[in-house]
Each structure stands twice: as structure tokens, then as C-alpha cells.
Amino acid sequence: MLLSDGASLIVDKVSHLHEISCDHLRKFDPLVLVVGAVGGTLVYLHVSKVYSRSEVPLHKRLGSFAFTQARKLAFVQRKIAEKLEPAKDDILRSIHKDDSDRVFITDIPTVGKSPAEVQQLATKYDAYGHFEVGQGKVSGTVYTDRGEEHLEMLAKIYHDFAYSNPLHPDVFPGVRKMEAEVIRMVLNLYHAPRGASGSMTTGGTESIIMACFAYRKMGTSRGIDSPVILCATTAHAAFDKAAHLCGMRIRHVPVDEKNRVDLKAMERMISKDVCMLVGSAPNFPSGTVDPIKEISKLGLKYKVPVHVDACLGGFLIPFLEEAGYGIDLFDFRLSGVTSISCDTHKYGCTPKGSSIIMYRSQELHHFQFFSVPEWCGGIYATPTITGSRAGANAAVAWATLLYLGKEEYVRRCREIVKSTRAIVAGVEKIPGMKLLGSPDVSVVAFTSTEFNIYAVGDILHKKGYNLNTLQNPDAIHVCLTYNHASESAVRSFLADLLEASTAVSHMSDRGNGSATAALYGMAAQIPDKSLVDEMAFAYLDACYAEPPSRLER
């Protein structure tokens, strides 16, 4: 009886409101009501489209918009220029500081130079570099010791395949086979099932872009209008680039105290628009491996493809177990893992310009392919972004994998991880210093709550080190390579790190006045990141610019 009375009361209320609304609307011309309804709907749809175009929180977008509008004011532009121009000049000078003669070739010579003259000039340019790579002074960058025998073999291979192009497999059948064999060797390294497939790319960024491109096409075929990449805040910036280039959205998941993706947060953030889940093995900032097994389970549960980014550690993690170090499953043995990116040109020790993107099946791989069947120049189809590809890159990658062999990769893995653990133990003993994340493979990231870590990095730079600067939070890291795999390299690094941190801890400002601290401090405070973009672009411009005259001030 009570339910019946309640229902009657609700019906009466709704009827009453309907009558009031009708009486009010009768005062308006029907055409006005129709136009208002259609117009309001269009405005709503436009606002919704603009809002959903980005995963950036609304308050940040509004702040950025306000700052951008303020930048258009003349006096604001003058103030910004006063600060930026000297900084741009400093960047230009910093880039060209090693150019000792400041002679810049701008025109093709009328008469060609002899091979000896060209080689002499190349040797001069090569001598510009002053970092002691072989002594473990450089983070990442060069992952092998550049042994003479290896280099001599590569020179011969490059000589034979310098002008080959896998785009023309009929003309260059040998390099086609080399590329296919490299892909198959890496697929088998990752326990790929029968029917798995992959492509060779120019590097990790292209491999990641290809995976995102494939999943965008796959998502679109499933009816997803605005596909979303779901990855940790620690995932490589190449995923942001892929989202931008492929017209996708990217949703960043927070990480836990060990810098691993927060699985509960990831599951909460899965929506019908998510076309791929991403796990890093390991991530770039702190070298931490995400819980790939659990991410794989999420992928199976929600029927979302899972991509494993193993670009950095791709030729370490498959050998960890044989090297005597444990690691949870991360590859195609997990049924939810549908693709993996792996750089051969890092710990695979191949020359720069090769990476592998792998898929569980040819069906998935086909989403990456591009074809124009009706082009007047003939049927055009390519597996990756590029059309023509450097066959020499495939040839030297193939040669390197065959030359080193599994036993050598296992040995190098063992030595690199051993040195990594030694540096971890040393960092933990330095007063005021603490590790960032979990150094699971070959990267050691560290920070401090007692002094500015960037100032420590600046001192180490003056000592001849080239390390990586991190932000959010402030930190620096060293990515160990085979060049760090010695007791002397580890001992020297820890001694220099202790000396630098001690010096900064005794500074009156605790290092807050260092150049790098000032730069990143300013960047963190600017709501409109286009200013930071402008400085980054100034750096890129400087890389292509003519060297400034010594007399210019």
C-alpha cells in the first residue's frame, strides 16, 4: 500500500511539472523552440568533442589557455623575449662549444675531395667528442665496447650492403632474408607462438608508434571513435608522440612508491575507448619493470590488447634467468601480451638504426601495414612508416646477432646487472641520497630530500660524466652499459658521486642555485608549457645551426 501511494505521488508531481512546463513554453514561437533545441544540442556536442579531445584535466587546460592569451600582449611578449633570447644564445653556444675551428660547410664543393681528404675531415669531426664512453662516463647511448674485431666485420658487411633496400626484395633478396631472420630470432627469444610476426624499424620510437598505429586501426574497426592509450606516467614519451601523430588520446596511470604502474588505478581507468594497455620492461626513468603478468590478466579480462615496451631492456631481460637473476614473466608466454617492442641497437649491440616490433599473430601485424591499392604509380604497400629502408642496418644487425651469440649476451647481461647492483648498494650508503623506484635491470635512479640532486648532476658533468636528468620528481639516473661492467668503472662512479653529493650538501643553498636546478625549477612553475617547448625547440634549432663566431657575445 505504501509503495502504491508513493508511486501515485511521484506520477502526480511529474504531471504537475509537465503542465507548468507546457504553459511556459506556449508563450514562445515553435520555430524558436526548435532552433533553440537544435542549437543547444550542437553546442553541447561541440563542447563535448573539445573536452574529450584531450585527457589533460580541465583546470590545467584553462590555465594554459589563459597564459597563452596573456602571451599575446605586447608587454608580456617583450618580457618573455628579454628572458628567452639570452637563454637561446647560451644554448647555441653550448651546442657548438666543441667545434674548435668554427668552419661550417654550406655548399657542395665544385670539385669533389679525395677519399683521403674526406676521411681526414671526418676524423677531425669525430675528435670533437670528449666524453670517455669506454670508461663508463656516459649513461646509455653506446651500449657495447666497440671491439675492433666486431667493427672490422661491420665495416665489411656495410661495404657489401650500403646501397641495399628491403623495399625491393626482388633486387636485394639477401638483405630481405637477413631482415626476416633477425625478426624471427628476436620473436623466438620472446617465446612467440607459431604464427607470430613482426617488423624491423629504425628504433624504439618507430616500433612504439607502429604498435599504437596498429591498435588505433584495430580499435576503429571495433567501433571506437576516439581510441585511448592507457599507460603509466613512467611510460616512454614515444607513446605521447604516437598519440599525437595517430590522433589518439593518452591516459596516464599513476605509479606506486616503487615506480611500478598502480594496477588498481589502471583497472579503474579502463573504459570502452581504451584500445591498448602498456607495460614497461623496464621503464626509462628508474629502470623499473611493471607487473606485466597482472597487466596481461587485465587485458584478457577486459579484452584489450597489451603491449610490452622492452625497447630499453630488450636484450637483457630475456637473458636474466640464465645469468642468475630472477624476473617475472614478461613475454608471449603470457596469453594477454599481444605485442612487444625490443631495440636491437641497445643491449643487442647492433649499430644504431634497428628495433623490432613483434605481434602475437599475423592478423594483428596486418593492422600495422599500409596500402594504397589504386595509386597510379602502382600498388603501394609498406610494413612500417618508411618506404625505402636502409638494408645496411638490417645487415649489420643480423651480423651482430650471429657474431655475439647467446652465450655472450648472457655473459654481458650478468656483468651489467652485477655492476648495477653494486652501484645500487653504493648509492644507498651515501648520506642524503636515496633510490628512485626499483632498479630491476640496468638503470639506477637517485634523488635527495636533503639537497638539490640537479646540482650533484652539474658537478658530475664537470667531472666528465653525461647522465640523464629526470623530473616529476627531481632525480638523475645512470643507465649502465657494457662499458660500465667493470669494478674500476663502478668504483670511480661511486667515489665521484659521493664527492659531488658531499659538496652540494655543504653549500649554503643546498644546490638550489645550480644551472640545471634553475632551469627545471622554472619549467615546473610555468603553467603554459609552450614556453618550455620553445626552449626545447631552441635546442633542436641549435643542433642544425651554423656555429656562432667566437667574437659574438
From TrEMBL:
Record's keyword terms, sorted: Endoplasmic reticulum, Lipid metabolism, Lyase, Membrane, Pyridoxal phosphate, Sphingolipid metabolism, Transmembrane, Transmembrane helix
Molecular function terms from GO: pyridoxal phosphate binding; sphinganine-1-phosphate aldolase activity
Membrane topology according to the record: Single-pass membrane protein
EC number(s) given by UniProt: 4.1.2.27
Keyword Glycosyltransferase assigned: no
Cofactor(s), by name: pyridoxal 5'-phosphate
Gene Ontology CC: endoplasmic reticulum membrane
PANTHER family: PTHR42735, SPHINGOSINE-1-PHOSPHATE LYASE 1
Name of the protein: sphinganine-1-phosphate aldolase
Phylogenetic classification of the source organism: Eukaryota, Metazoa, Ecdysozoa, Nematoda, Chromadorea
